[in-house]
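#structure-requests
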Amino acid sequence: MFLLYEYDIFWAFLIISSVIPILAFLFSGILAPISKGPEKLSSYESGIEPMGDAWLQFRIRYYMFALVFVVFDVETVFLYPWAMSFDVLGVSVFIEAFIFVLILIVGLVYAWRKGALEWS
């Protein structure tokens, strides 16, 4: 039978974890100084007056490099639990992980051939 009182700790945690950020935003909105002058609305770059327009176009290569990094970073997150329980899982899971790594290698070779790993 589904008993709600078994989930009291969960509901308390959910309510508290929802109320704390809401209160933080409310208090910061009430206590923060409000000053909208020309200095507040100007662009700021490390304490130096910005030179030129604030809207610059970046080359797509930087974004592609970041996406390739994220894909292979997430791949390690998926492989870590498999590696920790390798002795328990068996041969079928080894074959699945091997296919997963092969797909990632194919993706790496494709990105390499397309030049997505070249920084300059």
